[in-house]
Specification:
With 136 residues, the protein is α/β, with parallel strands linked by helices. It has one domain (2-20, 36-120): 2-Layer Sandwich (Nonspecific Lipid-transfer Protein, Chain A). It has five helices and seven strands, in the order βααββββααβαβ. A five-stranded mixed sheet has the order 4-3-2-5-6, with helices on one face. Strands 1-7 form a two-stranded parallel sheet. It is globular.
Length: 136
Amino acid sequence: MAQFLSDEWFSKVDELTRAAGDLQMPKAMTDVTVNLKVQTAGGEVQMSMNHGIIQKGFVEKADVDMSMPAEYAYKILVQNDWSVGMRGYIKHKIKLSGNMKKMIPLQVYKPSQPSVELTKNIAGVTEFADFKDFKP
């Protein structure tokens, strides 16, 4: 198990992603790059969703910049609960800037089966003690 957003976690996510092969990502995911600032107890973590793939650090010229607390990132990225994103945005916990049109298709995003399996595998190696009391 690796602590969510730690260097070890990013390494495990990268390893699992490479092992998964063709993820058959839907167009909604492959058409957008997102730089994500995640606020954690230890400070800010910079990461990206680069055409549907979780990566450590930012990508150049991302379509969208987002910031959110770690609990929201955990729900979205590890538990595959994309609905929490809209609730977080409405509560002003998630902030967005950039090409918002690229985010609209994600509201009806349906992950492919290989993508669902990858998310399950990522959840299986992820530890996140701060999550237990979170209610979006």
